[in-house]
Amino acid sequence: MWRDEIPWPLVWEATQETLIMLGASLAFAVPIGLVVGVLIFLTSPGNFWQKTWIYRLLSLVVNVLRSAPFVILLIYVMPLTRLLVGTSIGVEGAIPPLVIAAAPFFARMTEISLREVDRGVLEAAEAMGTPRLVIIWRVLLREARGGLIAGVTMTAINLVSYTAMAGVIGGGGLGDLAIRFGYQRFRSDVMFVTVALLIVLVQLLQAGGDRLVRHFSRKTHN
């Protein structure tokens, strides 16, 4: 059968590389995006630290980076990637552009989640004399947990597709395997396996994220 001809060791190695790229980029993108998203929310009109120029500047940066096609971003940030990690190819070379692409997306998801928090809860905490930093950490972010987890899930799913596109520049992972062994060698079986694995990974991420959202949403409302 054709499955006996599939280079399974290479498939396993590519899967590991995809998981490494996903985990490493998510580990950097989520904290960066969280901080930026919180700042965008807090400096927006009518909030604790209202600073219109900071709000507009951060929003502009986020919008510009989010609107850039990832393949173009991969190529454009190559000099920065080489400066940071010493190479622009392979797994290490793919991580910086992945972070640059994912962090603005999660920042916007964070802002949206924070805007959905009931203003009355924040005003009640402030009326009790609670310090603003405590309100941000223990009230605002706590109330937004469900939305933030959903944002992490969406960011991770986007990163799966980004890791596949990173194969265009030899970024490693399943995308690179699909291009080198599937497309360039006319191996439809390899293409099928890589696509199937990416679909399974996305489904697992979505299912896990949905379960966490339900869990923490119940805790928030109890």
Quick summary of this structure?
With 222 residues, the protein is mainly α.
Could you explain the architecture of this structure?
This protein has 222 residues and is an all-alpha fold. It has helices spanning 8-42, 52-67, 70-76, 78-85, 90-115, 119-127, 132-143, 145-165, 173-183, 188-221. The longest helix is centred in the first third of the chain and has 35 residues, at 8-42. It is elongated, with a radius of gyration of 20 Å. The termini are far apart. The mean pLDDT is 88.
Number of domains: 1
- According to CATH, what is the class? Mainly Alpha
Derived structural class: mainly alpha
Q: Would you identify the CATH H-level superfamily?
A: MetI-like
- Uncertain stretches of 5 or more adjacent residues: none
The N- and C-terminal alpha carbons lie at a distance of 55 Å
Mass-distribution shape: elongated
Write the layout of secondary structure elements.
Blueprint: H1 8-42, H2 52-67, H3 70-76, H4 78-85, H5 90-115, H6 119-127, H7 132-143, H8 145-165, H9 173-183, H10 188-221
Helix pairs in contact: 1-2, 1-5, 1-8, 1-9, 2-5, 4-5, 5-8, 6-7, 8-10, 9-10
List the main descriptive attributes of the protein structure presented here:
222 residues; mainly alpha; MetI-like fold; 10 helices; elongated
